[in-house]
Write a structure and sequence with these properties.
Layout (H helix, E strand, L loop, with lengths): L9 E7 L10 E6 L8 E6 L7 H11 L4 E5 L2 E6 L8 E8 L1
Antiparallel strand pairs: 1-6, 2-5, 3-6, 4-5
Length: 98
């Protein structure tokens, strides 16, 4: 049977502020994630919890859908939105590992 190895997987929830996006496309925002390394394989997911409000869920989903890519460097993740700048604060969950 295959064994699923998740020992090196880490998660972090990051907050993206509407006021911190760059002023021209592609819109970008650089967030400090101290434990992340450029060599980590990172995926982005939903930051919902069982106690998230319907309003928060709708906002997070709508704004996160605008993200077209992300770039990982040592200690930082930069998010990019090619077409439209997010207009509300929201959170995303990052999952990754070596």
């Amino acid at each position: 049977k295959p064994v699923l190895a998740v020992a090196n997987t880490r998660e972090a929830v990051v907050a993206l502020s509407a006021s911190n996006w760059s002023t021209s496309a592609p819109y970008s925002q650089k967030i400090a994630v101290p434990s992340i390394k450029a060599t980590d394989s990172v995926s982005m997911g939903k930051a919902h919890t069982k106690s998230s409000s319907v309003t928060d869920i709708e906002t997070f989903d709508e704004m996160a859908a605008l993200i077209t890519s992300e770039e990982v460097t040592d200690g930082f993740v930069t998010f990019y939105c090619a077409a439209e700048k997010p207009s509300k604060d929201f959170k995303v969950k990052l999952k990754g590992g070596e």
